[in-house]
Amino acid sequence: MIVKYQMLQDKKVWDATMHQLNSDTLLRHVQMKGGVADTNLNVRYCEETHKGEISDSNHTVIGNFQVFF
User: Fold this and answer.
1) 12 torsion bin: left (phi>0), alpha (psi -120 to 50), beta (else)
2) Three-state secondary structure string covering 1-69
3) From first to last of its 69 residues, what are the pLDDT tens digits of the chain?
């Protein structure tokens, strides 16, 4: 599967190939490629739309992602 990330503040966009979809893997990509220093991130994912949001420790949405199977 391919996950397309988009960070809102600096408009960074990238794709990542994943074999398993879980929050640890998603967040590791955000911290490494997205340049996010906050280690207390959260993700929300909708299985119907295959889209999700990334929020920081203040519950502010800082990015989003979409999964392509």
Assistant:
1) beta
2) CEEEEEECCCCCEEEEECCCCCHHHHHHHHHHHCCCCCCCCEEEEECCCCEEEEECCCCCEEEEEEEEC
3) 999 999 999 999 999 999 999 999 999 999 999 988 888 999 999 999 999 999 999 999 999 999 999
